[in-house]
Amino acid sequence: MSDERSGSLYDAIGGIEALRRLSNTFYEGVLADPVLAPVFANFTTTHIEHVAVWLGEIFGGPARFTDELGGHQSLLRSHLGLAITEEQRGRWMELMGEAVRKELPDDELLRRRVLEYFDWGTKIAKDVSAAPAGADLGDPGPTPRWGWEGLK
Ligand code: HEM
Question: Which residues pair with 150 in a beta bridge?
């Protein structure tokens, strides 16, 4: 690729503070949305921070989700039993697209890479959500990392 960019997406996004704003704006939309609000019936405000910390690690920042919040296995387990539909996944992507446009730097490649991660990640969340709560997922491996070229 000729349009090479150096550094992490995390730094280009603006670090954990920008990810907190993204997560906050996104969940404001989710909780007001008739398609998604029922899925998040057990929502608590810690969710906003946990998602920001997860995204920080994914986009090349500190590995805090792995070190402090149970890592990849725990993230996947959070989605077991939710039975996410394609309509719900689509709405999730629309609201995240709006939050990205509102909160992330006006950088087309950066926004595209971030939304590509969300498209990839929501498909995994949907797949995992078809298994019942408590299902054994085996070892999913380390938390993925996403950079200027996509999945590392
Ligand atoms: C890239 C996509 C996604 C990411 C990064 C993500 C991230 C997370 C994280 C970090 C948690 C744990 C929060 C905590 O510990 O408080 C979580 C839980 C949850 N996620 Fe996702 N998620 C994604 C996709 C989805 C989708 C598509 C849905 C549904 C449409 C969904 C629904 C939920 C729900 C309902 C919970 C809370 C489960 C509970 O009440 O314990 N997620 N997600």
Answer: 147
Is 111 in contact with 66 (CB distance < 8 Å)?
no
Q: What is this model's ipTM?
A: 0.97
pTM given for the model = 0.97
Instruction: Please tell me the distance between residue 140's alpha carbon and the centre of ligand 1 in angstroms.
Output: 17
**Residue ranges of domains in the chain, CATH in brackets:** 10-151 (1.10.490.10)
By most ligand atoms within 8 Å of CB, the mutation choice from 45, 76, 78, 82 for ligand 1 is 78
Q: What is the pLDDT of residues 76-128, one digit of tens each?
A: 999 999 999 999 999 999 999 999 999 999 999 999 999 999 999 999 999 99
